[in-house]
Amino acid sequence: MRYISTRGQAPVLSFGEAMLTGLARDGGLYVPETIPVMTPADIAALAGLPYEEVALRVMKPFVGDTFTEAELKGAIDRAYAGFGHVARAPLVQLAPGHFLLELFHGPTLAFKDFAMQVIGQLFQIALAKEGRRITIVGATSGDTGSAAIEAFRGLDNVDVVILFPHGRVSDVQRRQMTTPSESNVHALALDGTFDDCQNRLKDMFNDFAFRDEVGLAGVNSINWARVLAQVVYYFTAAVSLGAPARKVSFTVPTGNFGDIFAGFIAREMGLPIDKLVVATNQNDILHRCLTTGEYRMDGVKPSISPSMDIQISSNFERALFWAYGRDGAAVAQLMDELKAQGGFTVSQGALQALREIYTSGRVSEQETSETITQELTRSGELLCPHSAVGVRVGHAHATAPVPMVTLATAHPAKFPDAVQAATGIRPALPPRMADLFDRPERVTRVPNDLSALEALIRERRRH
Ligand SMILES: *Cc1c(COP(=O)(O)O)cnc(C)c1O
Predict the structure, then answer these.
(1) Alpha-carbon torsion 248, 253, 256, 258, what sign?
(2) 254 Cα–ligand 1 center, Å
(3) What is the C-alpha radius of gyration for the chain, rounded to an integer number of angstroms?
(4) Ligand 1 pocket, mutate which of 116, 409, 414, 419 (most atoms under 8 A from CB)
């Protein structure tokens, strides 16, 4: 399997190279040259299999010869062994025809564990083969950083450095980053905002001498291997609701479009998905774009579902690539316009192509809280604010008899303040991490200064 860039100008890479590279050299995102198809018989055969076995069958055709089947199987098995639910991604019923896919049973209680745990294992195998060491540096507003630390902690060939804005992440999120004791984990609290963290990260990647010296690598949501690992749970959910004989729809709380794009890949592979519904909070650039064809930045408004507070949605570029008939030059032009003018207009043909696949809905802050309250009464489910955004839109877009599955992207205990404000109930952490607030923290406060950061990383990483 070969991987090409959405902007058409970067070298064609193998799965392993695309995984270790992340962003393509022309600024684009890597996508598979062709999408492997599973027949209805292949899909029917997934019924009743363990999650890990489904993951192996779904991911293998994309991986090519970068990893042997035994290596891929080992990576998948180790990735999910620490999850708190044997089904990994269990489905619960909210209402007739409406189901919730719980993606929060991983070590950091958000769906990002599904992908990050697998790529931690795959990075380790690939690097050990080449005798290489790398330094993973990430900037986070909360969920991505903790998921990356959990995935890479203790791995031999990797140091993981996470920059988060000092005083601006939740206590649970911070403790998930600062309590791991392994010497390859480095949590840095930067004096600044999340944007400052992202800007210093970009500066480090643009400092080529530093980049080569420490073997800088990124694992943000544009990494193709992350998208791929997320395709799996669309299959397990749809098959348990009757696919391939029956169609299923999905609603996805969306920020950077990685999770819902995985649903599109599942659909291209032959899974009978009826609707893919994009659910946004008040940061609704995607909903506006799918409604009007205008994709325009208008600043981030902080919300109670902070992991969806985005100004631009990075993986949407992959959706545009398909909507424009895989024309890299057309995508490159849109991205130039975005940079120069803060937005672009999607062509009529491409907008129609997008609307054949995606619909969308937007949820206000008040509606998010209301949904948390209502759902507790209706079904007894306590939702995190992100999942509540999804459930509200999912209810509105469900069309019987096609079952609707809404993705629950985080555990309510990860966002206890918003849940308590809506319901009066402070959700408890699952027993396996109940001692999170007793563990010692280890964190380094850093100034918002590139050379100080680089000096610290040079000194701290293992050689
Ligand atoms: C990252 C995240 C999202 C958004 O997912 P994307 O793949 O960026 O669209 C939604 N909910 C939670 C809890 C998240 O951590």
Answers:
(1) negative
(2) 6
(3) 21
(4) 409
Cα-Cα-Cα-Cα dihedral of 96, 244, 406, 228, to 10°?
170
Residue of 109, 141, 143, 257 best suited for mutating to test ligand 1, as the one with most atoms within 8 Å of CB:
143
Identify the pLDDT of residue 95.
Answer: 97
Closest CA to 383 of 403, 363, 401, 357: 363
Spell out the domain ranges in the chain. 91-106+225-423
Proportion of the chain above pLDDT 70, given as a percent = 100
360 token code pair: 């969308």
Q: Which residues line ligand 1 (CB under 6 A)?
A: 110, 112, 143, 221, 253-259, 307-308, 386, 409-410
Alpha helix ranges (H) inside 95-253: 112-130, 143-152, 171-178, 194-206, 208-214, 224-240
Work out the mean pLDDT of the chain and round it to a whole number.
95
Q: What is the pLDDT of residue 408?
A: 98
Distance from Cα 243 to the centre of ligand 1, integer Å: 25
Q: How many residues does the chain have?
A: 463
Comparing C-alpha atoms, which of 368, 411, 410, 413 is closest to residue 391?
A: 368
Find, among 220, 387, 231, the residue nearest to 315 by Cα.
Answer: 220
* Domain over 91-106+225-423 is classified CATH 3.40.50.1100: yes
Compute, in angstroms, the gap from residue 49 CA to the centroid of ligand 1.
Answer: 27
Q: How close is the Cα of 388 to the center of ligand 1, in Å?
A: 13
Phi, psi dihedral angles at 329 (to 5 degrees):
-65, -40
Please give the single-letter amino acid code of residue 53: E
Q: What is the pTM of this model?
A: 0.95
Q: Which atom of ligand 1 is nearest to 414's Cα?
A: 13
